[in-house]
């Protein structure tokens, strides 16, 4: 278990606030998402239903994201991740499924700011249509952030979260900071 | 810019999110095959001006391999389809026929 998050709480104030979101529990679940047994196990372990394609569902302190047709990402408080992963693995015994606590392999950033600028900061880095009609809270997108793989979603119109591999956290953080630098506003999303 | 719709996650992914995987629908010839078959499997590739079938991977995304039918001359995309097939599905062939009557690719028409 790691005691420090990748950027150890670094924060940057530009056109939006970019900050290391701290330690975040992330569990990868791979298996047949159409399986009733899997859905039941996920519901029992997280209290959340399996999200639709490219969606993320939120609970009190957890979330469930659709990663691919056979992969889910479970977001939980960091301390709870091992127990939830163990519970899930137990429930899925005999199923063709894999549960792995990936918390220490990933990093998460929290971006907060005015809705338009927030979208812009992400849109500069990813080949994704970030207009409000195309992408809103509840949507989840795996893509690239400049040269590295990443994913993001919106908690609400003024908060976005970005995840990437911990090994590239420094790169992703600097990228987000440059994208959020004062004077770099484009004004495309109003 | 080439934009392909990933049949697994439904994203209209542009080129930089994808990784090209070469020609589609190759049949593998391994141990026990003739030298000619093995050589053709390893080296003989289509290089058409027009209709072509390719493999692509949604590398910066859901990570799945899929197939794409497109025109190498105009970059027009006729369609994409899942990887679990050994030849293009009929609906993709129909779409190509509608736009490129009389097309052929290897022994597919």
Task: Please summarize the sheet with the most strands of chain A.
Answer: 6 strands, antiparallel
Main beta sheet of chain B: strand number and arrangement?
4 strands, antiparallel
* Annotated CATH homologous superfamily of chain B: Folate-binding superfamily
- State the fourth-level CATH superfamily of the largest domain in chain A: Probable tRNA modification gtpase trme, domain 1
- How many domains of chain B? The number is 1
Gyration radius from CA atoms of chain A, angstroms: 17 Å
CATH topology of the largest domain in chain A: Gyrase A, domain 2
Q: Could you tell me which chain pair has the largest interface and how many residues each side has?
A: A-B, 12 and 14 residues
Quaternary arrangement of the chains shown?
heterodimer
- CATH topology group of chain B: Folate-binding fold
The shape of chain A is globular
Broad structural category of chain B = alpha+beta
Distance between the ends of chain B: 28 Å
Report low-confidence residues of chain B grouped into runs of 5 or more.
none
Task: Please identify the top-level CATH class of the largest domain in chain A.
Answer: Alpha Beta
Task: Encode the helix/strand succession of chain B as letters.
Answer: EEEHEEEH
In terms of DSSP E residues, the strand content of chain A is: 25-35%
Spatial sequence of strands, sheet with the most strands of chain A: 1-2-8-11-10-9
Distance between the termini of chain A: 42 Å
């Amino acid at each position: 278990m790691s005691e420090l998050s990748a950027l150890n709480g670094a924060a940057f104030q530009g056109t939006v606030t970019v900050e290391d979101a701290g330690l975040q529990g992330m569990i990868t679940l791979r298996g047949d998402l159409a399986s009733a047994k899997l859905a039941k196990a996920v519901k029992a372990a997280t209290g959340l239903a399996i999200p639709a394609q490219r969606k993320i569902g939120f609970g009190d302190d957890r979330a469930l994201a659709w990663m691919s047709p056979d992969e889910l990402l479970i977001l939980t408080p960091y301390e709870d991740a091992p127990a939830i992963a163990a519970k899930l693995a137990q429930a899925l015994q005999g199923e063709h499924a894999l549960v792995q606590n990936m918390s220490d392999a990933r990093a998460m950033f929290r971006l907060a700011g005015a809705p338009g600028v927030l979208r812009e900061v992400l849109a500069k880095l990813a080949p994704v249509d970030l207009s409000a009609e195309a992408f809103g809270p509840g949507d989840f997108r795996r893509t690239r952030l400049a040269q590295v793989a990443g994913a993001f979603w919106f908690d609400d119109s003024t908060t976005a979260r970005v995840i990437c591999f911990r090994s590239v956290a420094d790169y992703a953080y600097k990228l987000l900071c440059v994208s959020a630098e004062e004077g770099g506003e484009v004004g495309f999303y109003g | 810019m080439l934009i392909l719709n990933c049949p697994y996650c439904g994203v209209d992914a542009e080129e930089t999110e994808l990784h090209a995987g070469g020609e589609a629908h190759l049949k593998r010839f391994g141990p026990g095959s003739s030298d000619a078959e093995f050589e053709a499997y390893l080296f003989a590739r289509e290089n058409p001006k027009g209709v072509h079938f390719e493999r692509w991977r949604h590398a910066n995304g859901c990570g799945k391999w899929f197939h794409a039918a497109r025109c190498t001359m105009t970059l027009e995309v006729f369609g994409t389809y899942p990887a679990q097939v050994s030849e293009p599905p009929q609906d993709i062939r129909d779409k190509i026929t509608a736009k490129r009557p009389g097309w052929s690719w290897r022994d597919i028409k």
